């Protein structure tokens, strides 16, 4: 008896790619139309790999409506898109919407969740996803965690993994994270990419991209081609996603050497580097400042004062994500995308 076709979720943050950095830098805009189009490409790939049903949350910007309309068109029929169920959720147009949609998908037993957004969106989903794997697609401003790739190839990888045709041991990776604790506030949060320490004492505008607002940056991984605050580590002391350790840099305008780094798309600033080092796993690091704010994955979230003792700890208990390249390489070696003559997508089979 054949197994039932897998159920997957898709979460596209309507607000990703639209924040303040569009005014302070030259970041591109990801419209709702762009996101709906990316979801349609995902659905074509999911349909081709045997996904039976997709959960998609409602939104106020027309993404779900556009996808649902397209699902009744000839392209969806010819490509055998999976059935779409719209999750009708109460909307606040805040990160709470993303968290609620994730919880509902986990309760429904999805095999994976495809996420369209930046670092902040992925962090919100990861906080609720438990061990449901994330298929990451970049549509935000800070896009260090979700790697840039085409939705069609990502969807093929996600579909092959969700249907069990590629083993989890090959197609999934466990990500690092940075755990931030402030015992005096009974607070514990975590970041997927980096934590920046700022001398600014109040959160104010959440986005952080000015060199004078930076004192330290701690990074899980830091790639030389990254855009955002992790680029300060990536261009000074790079560390890969697969490495067991992380990296940190300390900054001051009085430093002998300054590093030219892209702190946001189109925003290059020379930042003085006074010290750097390796971030070892499971070792709590104290901060160099007595008071200020902490930005998690590019946005200030935590204020701390002289009586607080924040620490930052790297660990290997972050979310699971689909390794698209590894899945597709395995599929190529084993011809997993080959279809027999009787398959509905074979060219000899009439539509």
From TrEMBL:
Recorded superkingdom: Bacteria
GO molecular function ontology, one term from the record: kinase activity
Any Pfam family hit: NAD_kinase
InterPro entries given in the database record: AcoX-like, AcoX_kinase, ATP-NAD_kinase_N, NAD/diacylglycerol_kinase_sf, NADK
Gene3D superfamilies cross-referenced by the UniProt entry: Probable inorganic polyphosphate/atp-NAD kinase, domain 1 (3.40.50.10330)
Protein keywords: Cytoplasm, Kinase, Transferase
PANTHER family tied to this protein: ACETOIN CATABOLISM PROTEIN X
Protein name in UniProt: NAD(+)/NADH kinase
Organism: Pseudomonas juntendi
């Amino acid at each position: 008896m054949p197994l039932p076709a897998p159920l997957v979720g898709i979460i596209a943050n309507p607000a990703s790619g639209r924040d303040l950095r569009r005014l302070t830098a030259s970041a591109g805009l990801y419209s709702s139309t762009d996101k709906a189009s990316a979801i349609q490409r995902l659905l074509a790939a999911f349909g081709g790999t045997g996904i039976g049903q997709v959960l998609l949350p409602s939104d106020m910007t027309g993404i779900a409506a556009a996808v649902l309309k397209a699902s009744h068109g000839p392209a969806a029929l010819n490509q055998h898109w999976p059935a779409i169920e719209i999750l009708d959720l109460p909307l606040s147009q805040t990160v709470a919407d993303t968290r609620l949609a994730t919880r509902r998908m986990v309760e429904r037993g999805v095999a994976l969740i495809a996420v369209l957004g930046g670092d902040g969106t992925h962090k919100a989903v990861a906080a609720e996803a438990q061990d449901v794997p994330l298929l990451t697609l970049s549509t935000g401003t800070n896009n260090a965690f979700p790697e840039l790739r085409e939705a069609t190839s990502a969807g093929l990888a996600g579909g092959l993994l969700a249907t069990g045709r590629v083993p989890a041991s090959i197609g999934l990776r466990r990500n690092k994270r940075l755990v931030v604790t402030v015992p005096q506030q009974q607070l514990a949060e975590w970041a997927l990419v980096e934590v920046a320490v700022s001398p600014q004492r109040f959160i104010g505008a959440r986005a952080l991209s000015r060199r004078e607002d930076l004192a330290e940056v701690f990074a899980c991984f830091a790639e030389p081609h990254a855009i955002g605050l992790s680029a300060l580590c990536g261009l000074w002391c790079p560390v890969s996603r697969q490495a067991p350790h992380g990296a940190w840099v300390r900054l001051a305008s009085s430093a002998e050497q300054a590093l030219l780094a892209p702190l946001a798309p189109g925003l290059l600033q020379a930042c003085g580097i006074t010290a750097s080092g390796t971030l070892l796993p499971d070792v709590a690091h104290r901060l160099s400042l007595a008071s200020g704010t902490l930005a998690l994955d590019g946005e200030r979230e935590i204020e701390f004062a002289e009586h607080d003792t924040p620490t930052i700890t790297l660990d290997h208990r972050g979310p699971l994500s689909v390794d698209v390249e590894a899945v597709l390489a395995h599929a190529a070696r084993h011809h997993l995308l080959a279809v027999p003559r009787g398959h509905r997508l074979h060219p000899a089979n009439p539509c």
